Amino acid sequence: HVLERRLRAAVDGGGLTLRYQPVVALPSGQVTGVEALARWHDEELGEISPDEFVPLAERTGLIVDLGRWVLRTACHEAARWPVVVAGPAASVAVNVSPVQLGQRDFVGDVVAALRASGLEPPRLCLEITETAAITDLASTAARLEELRRLGVRLALDDFGSGHSSLTLLRRLPVDLVKIDRSFVERVTTDTADAVLVRLVIEAAHSLGRRVCAEGVETLEQARQLVAMGCDSAQGWLFGRPADVPVLAGPTQGPA
Ligand code: G
Ligand code: G
Ligand code: MN
Ligand code: NA
């Protein structure tokens, strides 16, 4: 397959880049970290979306090398952001595919990326998508416990998009829950979604987890989330994925 061959070449030959989207604390709007997002620009095919190449990489096993590159690059770059703009504790979140998480040497890859970069473990956050965790809850929980012992942070990504969210919230040792964009999108217009978001925030807080809202696009959404006690947010309102992380100073708070 042509696309697969070209993706392999991009992974091996430096054809991938990372973009960083700011994560802000609520209600201050202060940037506390970023999420690293992989981008693939092919010379002939142009820009190919991760919605397309990540599933392809997962099907073909390329995700293992691709994911290792993302992890190493994100740690390396984050360790070099100037403290004056990023703050000493600025975090970098990396998406981890379930295929990667299931690899025997994944924990070793994380250790290696931290060592090679010099990044302090608490500055790295690994995002595990909710739907992935469901397949084998016991082994996912065990794997996350191993990672936790390294001192890195863990997040449950796309929360609410699956079917057993509350079980996962209880069973998985994550620090952070990221509420899926589909709920945030309707939080100011759909009463049922607003109820769900409020419940997720309360349940997460009761279990000692913090909550990040994804895909915040309007000030109205941000205000609603602040009123619900949401801890942090991400979305176009605060910043799009950019090549240089936008970490400068306090930004305009939503409240
Ligand atoms: O950046 P964008 O919204 O287009 O990303 C689309 C999807 O691709 C999201 O679900 C995102 O989590 C995923 N994605 C982006 N970068 C990575 C990556 O480095 N690794 C994995 N596993 N998924 C990624
Ligand atoms: O699944 P994950 O959370 O990793 O996906 C992140 C994706 O969401 C990225 O591809 C990013 O480009 C996209 N994204 C981030 N903020 C917004 C937003 O405010 N609106 C929309 N529509 N997409 C967003
Ligand atoms: Mn994510
Ligand atoms: Na998500």
TrEMBL record:
<protein>
    <submittedName>
        <fullName>EAL domain-containing protein</fullName>
    </submittedName>
</protein>
<feature type="domain" description="EAL">
    <location>
        <begin position="1"/>
        <end position="255"/>
    </location>
</feature>
